[in-house]
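Tutorial, part two.
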Amino acid sequence: MSSKKVIGPTFEEMLHPDKIDPKVRKLALKKFKEDPLDPINFFNITWRGIDNKIKYVVLPKALTGVAANIIVMYGRDFPTGSHKVGATYSIMAEKVIRNEIDPSYHTLIWPSTGNYGIGGAWVGCRMKFDSVVILPEEMSKERFEIIKSYGARVIATPGCESNVKEIYDKAKELKAENPEKVRILNQFEEFGNYRFHYYVTGNTMLELVKNEKIGNGRIASIVSGVGSAGTIACGDRVKQEFPETKVVTLEPTQCPTISMNGYGGHDIQGIGDKHVTWIHHVTNSDAVVAIDDMESKKGMQLLTDEVGKSFLKEFISSDQVEELATIFGISGVANVLGAIKVAKEYGYGPDDNVVTIATDTVDRYRSVMSDLDKKYGKMDRAEAKARFESIFMGVKTDWFFEGTIENRRRWHNLKYYTWIEQQGKSIEELNSQLEDEYWENHQKMVQETDKLIMEYRKREGIYGL
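Running the prediction step on this input gives:
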């Protein structure tokens, strides 16, 4: 069995886990809590729960202050506690099934600012690869601890969330030391990341609004912060069904790279990486919005701290408040604030659905909350009320940049400096990204990969575990 590939679900099975062999799915669900490091948990990579229902909440309007339905799909119940594990698994599965990487020989390098590296540590080690995660030193200490607990090595590079070039430089240094053995799986350029969200996340969103009969059953807008720009790929799929959907990219005001060709450090961990990624279909974005990192952190604390929850329970049901406390990290709150901004800007009403994502949970940011307490003091009811009114009710429509023809081309052109000058991509491929055919060809690889996985199972008579 040691020579067998460790392969999990197809893209279609991640979208519809009820299509997994019932025995395998039952065992995976059993192991989810009993043994979270068992590779059978690959079959728990899905936006759906044990009841096959999509994991989401429609935020109470008392929290958002807008008439539109703000729908949050949350990644809390993925195997690593974040949907990024879907992207890492998809990248790995595509390469393993095509014999491009071999666990008996290759060392995998995972450049990351957090959840992707956590996913890479979990997936890579479950697939029996030597895995190394490169992470900025200022990321939360919880991130480093989780990566090590999954069996991977971790290297800290200088800086914070937006210091991605330092990560790239370290990855290239490791590659140069042993070019045959080292393989860099860069989320910012690997299209397995794009394909997971195009097919699995995008189709999940479509089925959610239709099957749950939320609002008018359509999607007015998708709002997503971009780190790797994998998640925002769901917009490519949704627009094929609902051409009127506004796909809105979100970044920090402290690092307004796409919106203002800017730079800077920030602390919305998981987004705003000071460059435009190779897999970001920016010419399909309708707008870019920016959100303040401190408001995102203080907003997360309001939703998760006992004092904040107590205040919210004065006008939101206790059950709702407790549920919300379990699904939000910093970037998720930023996404909600961006969704409120978009709903206000476009004047959406009660029939309109704005969909966004909560990537991870507060458990990865307890140290960040502790730092907030040290800096600003413990939150009391007056502070909770002030945060609610200023952060959630006070969302303004500033920092909003429309996707005009000129702006979209400007966003696209920003790729040149990172990817052509620094990373050695070809100018021909950069130019081809302006054509729909380029993205459609990448989308078609979903079916090709699924076919290869199914053929492997049929030939070997196993699920690969």
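The first helix runs from residue 11 to 15. In part three we will examine how such features are distributed along the chain.
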